[in-house]
């Protein structure tokens, strides 16, 4: 029986001024999913590793099987699959953990089915899994995890995705402080009404960030990485956030923000050296306040989820 | 005595989802300003034509002289100039009339002074004139009138301008219905608080519009030309607005919006033929409701204000 394994990367959603509309993928860190056809006509999650036993095995609750089921329903297929999930991503960290599992599962299952869908076409199926995992079928993690690079979610009705260019050299440092932050808390602190002025400032910044990505203009990207809408509320939930923000700008990083709904913080840097320095700065800041932090350094991943060659 | 004449074009500010941060210049329609050095050490507005006698001649109230005075102060010069303004733009129409006068005056005076400033560097001086004319030193008309093309005003503190690409073939139809609309009324109908959801929708659309300009993707531009913040309030002040909006999309135009604070409506079109059809559609719509309308058809002007060659 043929087995196919796919990898899907971690992602940063809510990219500062790109709150709720922009995400990007990083390299290396991510989830692996192996899929085999079975004869039961059912989706069966056979094993999950790396999750500390926290993820559900039931096919109607696991993001891998829910995503595949959405694809099979669309295709009108009753194919059964065995699913093996290897988590490489921490849960609930704000790095798109549920999205990576769904994306990897879809890429592997799509391959076994003869690749009827492009990776962009897989996004709506992964969004069904996000509904189960997060309560909302948002695309800002699943789209970049599948498609790679920076992906703009211009609209949901209908879904309108725009893949944006990744300037050469752009690096990301992900900083995961060991503190628990519930997505529901991160969402509840958001203001529901904002001033016209703040909305205009945010528009100027997202327009600047998009322009900076197209122009490869790191300074414009840096000036634009300011979030006046979500960050002022959410940053209060992450001790050391503002001190770190100043530190990383002083060493030449382009800017920082909260990854997803946190607590992970992302830093964008113009080269690997500064990305490494940002990681060290974060270790210093969090050590002072008694928090451990995991540091991941990566280029922005422009290819998204992919099949692992030795398994094909 | 040397005389220099410059032309500066009409402009569209508040480009739909680019409310308060984006403007673009059009061809042909605009103002001419002639400047001659004098020995009085003063700025003297010698004549104004085409304004129906409505514009002030006093040097501290006229946008030409106020803009030039700001430049001279920055330069530390006490040079005097005679100024002749030929208005080619209707006043109070939402086509950047005051901005065009200031921009033309600055380009002409800058030339007589030996061109110490680039056109982008002239923008802050023109903003001083906008303070006099509109009560606020906004840049979304003066920057495109000087620099041409689409200009993003990412921020004001400090001023951060980004010139964006103009896709080949892009045309604009300006529709000026003969009705009076005070800028103060247009501003007072704006909501001061907006929902987080509307702000996010607007962010997605401006990000899509900017991407569409860089990619030369007319369909993406079209999908993005939706303003959920200012237009729902302001459109009520312009009879026929929504009927026209549907009409012009049905004939293949990319979208429409209120130019500046109105009443002029701009239409973006993928070619000249559709731009002309949009003009005819507007004549039909406004005829039904008993309003005359002036129609101007133009490419997007990518060069901005310029010196008239026969005068140099």
UniProtKB/TrEMBL annotation, chains A, B:
InterPro entries: GHMP_kinase_C_dom (IPR013750), GHMP_kinase_N_dom (IPR006204), GHMP_knse_ATP-bd_CS (IPR006203), Homoserine_kinase (IPR000870). ATP binds at residues 90-100. It catalyses: L-homoserine + ATP = O-phospho-L-homoserine + ADP + H(+). Residues 211-275 form the GHMP kinase C-terminal domain. It is found in: Cytoplasm. Its EC number is 2.7.1.39. Its main location: cytoplasm. Residues 65-149 form the GHMP kinase N-terminal domain. One of its GO terms (cellular component) is cytoplasm. PROSITE patterns: GHMP_KINASES_ATP. It comes from the Bacteria. One of its GO terms (molecular function) is ATP binding. GO terms for biological process: threonine biosynthetic process. HAMAP family: Homoser_kinase (MF_00384). Belongs to the GHMP kinase family. Homoserine kinase subfamily. This is Homoserine kinase. It comes from Arthrospiribacter ruber.
């Amino acid at each position: 029986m043929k087995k196919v394994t796919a990898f899907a990367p971690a992602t940063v959603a809510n990219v500062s001024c790109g709150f709720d509309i922009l995400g990007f993928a990083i390299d290396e860190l991510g989830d692996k999913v192996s899929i085999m056809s079975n004869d039961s006509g059912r989706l069966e999650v056979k094993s999950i590793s790396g999750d500390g036993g926290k993820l559900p095995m039931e096919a109607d609750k696991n993001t891998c099987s829910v995503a595949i089921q959405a694809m099979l329903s669309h295709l009108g297929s009753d194919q059964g699959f065995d699913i093996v999930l290897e988590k490489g991503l921490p849960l609930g960290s704000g790095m798109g953990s549920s999205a990576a599992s769904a994306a990897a599962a879809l890429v592997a299952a799509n391959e076994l089915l003869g690749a009827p869908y492009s990776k962009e076409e897989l996004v709506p199926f992964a969004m069904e899994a996000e509904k189960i995992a997060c309560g909302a079928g948002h695309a800002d993690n699943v789209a970049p995890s599948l498609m790679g690079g920076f992906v703009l979610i211009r609209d949901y009705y209908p879904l309108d995705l725009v893949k944006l260019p990744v300037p050469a050299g752009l690096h990301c440092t992900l900083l995961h402080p060991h503190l628990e932050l519930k997505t529901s808390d991160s969402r509840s602190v958001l203001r529901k009404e904002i001033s016209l002025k703040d909305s205009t400032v945010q528009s100027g910044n997202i327009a600047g960030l998009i322009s900076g990505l197209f122009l490869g203009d790191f300074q414009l990207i840096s000036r634009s990485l300011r979030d006046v809408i979500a960050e002022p509320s959410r940053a209060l939930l992450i001790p050391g956030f503002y001190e770190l923000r100043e530190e990383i700008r002083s060493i030449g990083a382009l800017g920082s923000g909260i990854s997803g709904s946190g607590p992970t913080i992302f830093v964008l840097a113009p080269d690997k050296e500064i990305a490494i320095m940002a990681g060290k700065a974060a270790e210093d800041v969090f050590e002072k306040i008694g928090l451990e932090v995991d540091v991941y350094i990566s280029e922005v991943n422009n290819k998204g989820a992919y099949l692992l060659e030795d398994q094909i």
